[in-house]
Amino acid sequence: MSITCRPISAEQHLAFIEERGSASFLQTPAWSKVKAEWRAESIGFFDGDVLTGVGLVLYRQLPKLKRYLAYLPEGPVLDWARTDIDEHLSALIAHAKSRKAFAVRIGPTIVHRRWSPVTIKAAIADENVTRLSEVTPDETANVATRLRNELLHEGWVTDETGHGFAAGQPMFNFQLPLRHADGTQKTEDELLKGMNQLWRRNIKKATKEGVTVRTGSRDELADFHRIYLETAERDGFTGRSLGYFETMWDALNAENPQRMKLYLSEHDGDLVAATTMVQVGEHAWYSYGASTNAKREVRGSNAIQWQMIRDANDAGCAVYDLRGITEGVGADDPEIGLIQFKVGTGGEAVAYLGEWDYAINKPLYFAFDLYLKKR
Fold first, then answer.
1. N or C: which end of the chain has fewer CB within 10 A?
2. Domain of 316: which CATH number?
3. What percent of the chain has pLDDT over 70?
4. Which residues form a coiled coil (predicted)?
C-alpha cells in the first residue's frame, strides 16, 4: 500500500486547506482548541512524499480505559473522487490503531443528494410526505454513491435511522449557492429574486422600520450570549456558555482574523437579533443565531441573515451554509418551522453521506455504542 498517514504540523494542515479552497471549519487546526476536552492531532495522508489529504482527529477516551474514539468531524479533507480512497481509509485506521483507538468515526462532507426549493415546498404541502428522503432528489451525485458503496464494502457502518441531531454532525443541511453554474458570482438582485415573497417583504420591512446590522467585537459576545440564552429558553434547548463562544472566537480568529464574525441587529438602540458566521475559504456558515422575544415584528432576524449573505457573497464565497436541518416535513413535525424559514432564502437542502464508524475493537465499540444510546 503506497498511502501512509502520519502527524503533520498545524501549518502544513492549514496550507493544504487554503490551497484546496475550503474545508469544514471543524477540520481546521484551530478547532482543536475549541474542543479542548478531546486530545487532538493534525494528520496528513501521503502518496510517497506528496500530501494528498489532511484531517483533524479528536480522541475521546473511554471511561477508565486507555482506549479512544478517533473522531474526524466533517472530515477528513480528501478528494473523495480519488480511485484510492480505500487505501487512504486503511492508512487512517492503521494510524488510529497505533494511537490506541478502538474505533474511527468520519463524516465525509460530500453532497450526496440535493432538493430544490420547489421540491421542498411541494413536499411540505403534500400530506402523504413526512420526510424529505421520501421525495426523489433533484440531483444525486454518483461520486457520493460510489463512496457510500465502498464504505459499506470495507466494513464501515452508519446509522441512517436518526431523525434529529443526536448522532453528531447533521446529515441534512441547508445551503444557498452564491455562484452560477459557470462559476460567476450572483448579484444582490439575483439573490433577492431567489428568495420567496415573505423573505423579501420582511427584509424590506426591517429597512423601513430602521433596523441596522453591524459586525461586533469580542467584548460584544456577552450581548449576543444574553439573547442567545433567551432564545434557548424560548425554543427549549440547552445553551452553551459565554466562555465557549469566547474560546471559539479566540481560537478561530487567531488562525485567521476573518474566520469568525459577530453580527448585531439593532432597532432604536435595542439589540433584537445576533448571529455568528464562520468562513473558511469559499465556504461561509451561519453557525449560531439568537433573537429577542420583544420587537419580533421589526424582522431583525431576516435583516441579519441578508447582511451575512451579502457579506459572504462580497467575500467571493461559493456557498452560504445555514447548517443543519432535520428531514421532517410533516405539518406536525417539531422542526418544520426551521426548514420553512431556511427555504425562504431560495437555497437547497443537501444530504451528506452522514457519519460512518469503523470498529477496530468490536467488543469495545459495541459497549461504547450501547453507552451512547443509553445516554
1. C
2. 3.40.630.30
3. 98
4. none
